[in-house]
């Protein structure tokens, strides 16, 4: 009898930074943390590495392309919610294209905020 393997849910969170600003989105109509702010983020789809997942997410959610080498992994966090998760935090300050809200059905605001803005 095969023992079931331990599973963890991996996700990427991308800090896009320009001119002392960070890109934030407000979640909408998702059923999870609606009305709260987040960075572009998502789960790994299997058969992709962390940076490839980040590339996919910034394209799907923000309509931009970030070169593989322009991402920097800045943190990793293991956490226990209902299930165990591992979150990878990445930053990028160079990309191709203009940021646009590609998922208005899940995000009702996508905006640059100054780091010192309260």
UniProtKB/TrEMBL annotation:
What CDD domains does this protein map onto? NUDIX_Hydrolase
Indicate whether Metal-binding appears among the record's keywords.
no
* Highest taxon listed in the record's lineage: Bacteria
Its protein name is: NUDIX domain-containing protein
Biological process GO annotation list?
dGTP catabolic process
**Family annotation (InterPro entries):** NUDIX_hydrolase-like_dom_sf (IPR015797), NUDIX_hydrolase_CS (IPR020084), NUDIX_hydrolase_dom (IPR000086)
What PANTHER family does the record point to?
Answer: 8-OXO-DGTP DIPHOSPHATES NUDT15, NUCLEOTIDE TRIPHOSPHATE DIPHOSPHATASE NUDT15
Q: Which Gene3D superfamilies match?
A: Nucleoside Triphosphate Pyrophosphohydrolase
State a single Pfam family of this protein.
Answer: NUDIX
Q: Which GO terms describe its cellular component?
A: cytosol
Signal peptide feature range = none
MF (Gene Ontology): 8-oxo-7,8-dihydrodeoxyguanosine triphosphate pyrophosphatase activity
Keywords attached to this Swiss-Prot or TrEMBL record, sorted alphabetically, are:
Hydrolase
Question: The Nudix hydrolase domain covers which part of the protein?
Answer: 7-118
């Amino acid at each position: 009898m095969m023992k079931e393997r331990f599973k963890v849910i991996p996700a990427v969170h991308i800090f896009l930074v320009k001119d002392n600003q960070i890109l934030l989105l407000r979640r909408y109509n998702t059923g999870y943390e609606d009305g709260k702010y987040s960075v572009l983020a998502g789960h790994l789809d299997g058969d992709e590495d962390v940076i490839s997942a980040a590339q996919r997410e910034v394209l799907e959610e923000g309509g931009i392309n970030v070169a593989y080498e322009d991402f920097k992994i800045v943190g990793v966090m293991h956490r226990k919610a209902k299930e165990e998760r591992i979150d990878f935090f990445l930053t990028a300050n160079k990309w191709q294209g203009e940021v646009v809200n590609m998922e208005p059905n899940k995000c009702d605001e996508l905006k640059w905020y100054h780091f010192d803005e309260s």
